[in-house]
Amino acid sequence: MTFPSRFTRLEAARARFGDRVDRLGGFLTRGDPLADDVAASIEANESGRASWELFERAARSGIGSVVDAPPSFRAFFDSVERVPLWVDWDIVDRGGEVLLRAGALGGIVLGCYSLVLGYASPGGNKPLVLSGRLEQQAARRLNETAQFVRTTIARGSMHPHGQGWQGALRVRLVHAHVRRMIGRTGLWDDAWGTPINQHDEAGTSLLFSVAVLGGLRRLGVRIAPEEAERYVQLWRWTGWLMGVDAELLPASEAEGERLGALITATQGDPDDDSRRLTRALLEAPLGAATSAGGRRRAHRIMAMSAAMCRVLLEDDLADRLAVPKTGARHAVPLIRRLVSGAEHARERVPFGNAAAFWAGKRYWDGVVERGASAPPLFMQPQALQRGTPFDGARSSLPR
């Protein structure tokens, strides 16, 4: 397998992982044919909005509710409406409990660890760079991610035609549209593989599953083995709905960690786009500040976010992403001790779990409420719709 230039440590990776490295490389050129065909069908329709509405109706009520549905729609929904035998609804329904009870700590891990790890990939970040959404609309994207996660972890939401199930399909279709739009810009280098390919989709799925578990533990959250298993199975099912190849969907946390290590070992170093996207995320609170007091509060949030990033990423990667060192880092050991103490109390105090779930639900419901006035989730990136990526994207792509 010939790897594109984004991979720079192949020989060391092969020495560690053997032929698994080359087997992984094949997924760089694989997209998502079922979703791509649906996206093509929608784009070919003179009334794209009407086609989107047909897709939404099929997601809500099943493909049988759509009279004269295009063949691409039927093939897509025939696939996603078939539930694999390994899906156990009791496990999936309880999969989000660990993140729900973690409350704000879960939000911190998602924003300061999972998303930033995604930016560190010099190839995987290019669709974000071309869309301009993370630099121009970092706060909105962060809110979209939080809302998507909240819907996914809600009990019963991932059953066919549930809210989370529908959300996963919407994200998958948006990825297909972005993949097609990137191809039309003339800015994508085919040596980087297919835009939003299976390799990168699998990596993203791991950021929401095993990376979250690891990040929570690093902050002092205690996670029982059965909780971790349920959480991984929830995101295994979510990844399957989002079109990730079954071969790349880990069945356990340990399996996910091994796959993540393989992906990381072959990846190039963070590039300028990685650092720019990370900076935009950390500076997002400043963009919402409208007063002197608001700006001071935003700077405090930014300092704490940077401190959390450095703790979760560890200093080597944080330095390569240019995450600033702030005085807030001195508060992190205290936070860990407080979290650890609270976790010990939760396990020993009667109704401790119930109290943690109540507080966590309030946090996540607040996330959804704050985003209620935002534009609809998963809108197509306007910059790519016009075919004019934001300034800087052209120069940052390899030639």
List the helices and strands and how they pair.
Blueprint: H1 10-17, H2 20-25, H3 33-44, H4 48-61, H5 71-80, H6 89-93, H7 97-102, H8 104-120, H9 126-131, H10 133-136, H11 138-153, H12 163-185, H13 198-208, H14 210-218, H15 225-241, H16 253-266, H17 272-282, H18 284-287, H19 292-313, H20 315-320, H21 332-348, H22 352-370, H23 382-386, H24 393-396
Distance between the ends: 21 Å
Helix content: 55-70%
Residues in β-strands, percent: under 5%
Biggest sheet features: none
Return the average pLDDT rounded to an integer. 86
Number of beta-strand segments: 0
* Tally of contiguous helical segments: 24
What is the H/E string?
A: HHHHHHHHHHHHHHHHHHHHHHHH
Rg, Cα atoms, Å: 21 Å
Q: What structural category do the secondary elements indicate?
A: mainly alpha
What is the overall shape? Answer: globular
Query: Would you identify the regions where 5 or more consecutive residues have pLDDT less than 50?
Result: 375-399
